[in-house]
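S.,

Sequence below, as promised.
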Amino acid sequence: MPVETTAPGHIRLNSTGPELRRVLGLRDLVLLIVGTVIGSGIFLVPSAVLHSVGNSVTVALMVWVIGGFLSLLGALTYGELSATKPEAGGLYIYIRDCFGGLAGFLFGWILFFVVSTGSVATLAVAFSNYLGGLIELKPWAAKVVSLLMIGVIAVVNVRGTRQSANLQNLTTAIKVAAILAMATGLLLFSHAVHPLKVGMPPSAEVGSIWAGFGTAMVSVLWAYEGWQYATFTAGETIHPQRNFPLAFMSGIGILIGVYLLANLGYVAALGADGVANSSRVAASALSTLSPVLARFVTLAILISIFSAAHSITLTAPRVFYAMAKDGVFFQQLAQVHPQFGTPAFAILAATVWASLLAITGTFEQLLTYVVFVGWAFYALAAASIFVYRKRKTTGTVYRVPGYPWTPSCFIAIVGLFVANTIVHQPLRAFVGTAIVLTGVPAYFAWRRLARVEDKSS
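The prediction came back faster than expected:
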């Protein structure tokens, strides 16, 4: 395939085949953001958050609000970046443009081999585990179920972006409606049993409560993680300069509201102590109304998990497609299916690797090691806005409010999270960094290959 040089040291394949089609609208983006973020976290995390802050409902709710606000700072920043460079690949494109091809490649490298595929594998295994709570599954059957879920999602995504978005919209709407119905029911029918007490804790307890604030915030940020994936679909979005900023603001706003309402419902049903001591808070809360309703939670979680895995498959392969077009990944992944208009080979490659991770069970440790590195790349992508502004290449349709403080606050807080991991978990940080650096020789090998093809064409 012929190549072209678009910047010093940067080679891009000159594709003559079909290109990705712009078929995603504002509603699709909003539901994609919400669907990617809401997995199983809101059904499990509230107990860990409340326990970390000494069972103080007020402080726990503050953590959820602040976590949402921090996500909003990043989302507002990414809104301008998406409007500036509405290309498939999102964060990869911003990092590549502003900090060099190697930095962009390393982000895509861990996204392919660990972060996105490992997340899909995690969700697939969780899906079979929760299904096992409804019907008995032998170990081999559970693995088959996990692989079937991954396979079904892959087929839908290969068949068309519009069809994939329709399925994503449906599953997201179902799980949001289920959470809202659950929370509303708990508030209406459990309030007399455990009246909500919202107020500041006694001064004697403030010190110990705030000591656990950071731990609680880590859990909450994990529950909010995933909105960044929407940027990967910028090459398939209609009117991206307008729709991305609106989608990010709307999506994060919906998430904050849903998460707060769910937490209030749990506390109304179980009380602060009950929530903090429950390993499956949603099921425990609904069981106070009816044991039958507790099984309803499992069904809601299954839909939620499927939706989250589907959204990752709908978004992440666009990064691998962009990398291949840049000549730094498997060349075939740059091809768009002539009939379906999707990056079919990129989707299938990610699916195969996610399936291998699911079968071998290696995804858990890998994700644990590189999660802080992923956040470092999120901060680096946000810092791209300063470079684009300096080059005066940002658009004028939307500009992040509060610049430069909005992106600066997001970067600083993410930096503290990354630094905390390095200081308190140096071994994990070392292994995670080593995993990322395995991509360095691969990057230069692909670069040399691209140059050889350039000279021979």
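Residues 3-456 form a domain with the Amino acid/polyamine transporter I fold (CATH 1.20.1740.10).

Coffee later?
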